[in-house]
Write a structure and sequence with these properties.
alpha+beta, Aminopeptidase, 8 strands, about 35% helix, globular, NAT_camello-type
Length: about 180
């Protein structure tokens, strides 16, 4: 991927995760980053939403496809950022180019870092990148139970444009699309 870019995401307040360290958002360029993000999806979505391993498979396939394209075609494919805290990957977000638009994907954050502005900083990082890339807009797909993420998307300026019932990842839910034009 590209060189590491680090951003301190707090204002000095210690996080619930402990050790007094502040979480850092950086590009996902280190060995193990991609696998950690995939595993985090599997663990969090199982423990918080009772999703089965098909969620981890779905994320893993998409993330590996992104990584392969990124290595073959270069940075025009997009970027992935991770949140690192106390030596562990505890969050991530990705902005891809898809059909001339930005596509926000794979936003997640461990519960230990929620409520401290880290999720908001992740979304801001990805959206700043989308604007720098000159995308005319950004879209994302998500599911109904992710209320905290929906609030972050709406705060950033996204609007819900569609919703339909689905059965996926072992649960009944609604698949939702959010869009934002610049």
């Amino acid at each position: 991927m590209t060189e590491t870019v680090e951003q301190d995401v707090t204002t000095g307040t210690a996080t619930a995760a402990g050790e007094g360290e502040r979480p850092v958002i950086r590009l996902a360029t280190e060995p193990g980053d991609l696998g950690d993000v995939i595993a985090l999806h599997g663990r969090l979505y199982w423990s918080e939403y009772a999703m089965d391993q098909s969620m981890e498979i779905y994320c893993g396939e998409g993330i590996m496809r992104f990584a392969r394209e990124r290595f073959e075609r270069g940075p025009e494919v997009g970027e992935m950022w991770v949140v690192e805290h106390a030596g562990r990957i505890l969050g991530a977000i990705t902005m891809l180019e898809e059909d001339g638009l930005g596509r926000l994907r794979w936003l997640l954050l461990d519960a230990a870092l929620r409520g401290f502005g880290v999720g908001r900083a992740l979304v801001r990082t990805a959206m700043d990148y989308a604007r720098e890339r000159g995308f005319p807009g950004v879209f994302l797909t998500t599911i109904a139970p992710l209320h905290t993420a929906h609030a972050l998307y709406r705060e950033a300026g996204f609007e819900l444009t569609s919703s339909e019932p689905v059965r996926q990842w072992g649960i009944e839910t609604d698949e939702m699309r959010f869009d934002m034009k610049f």
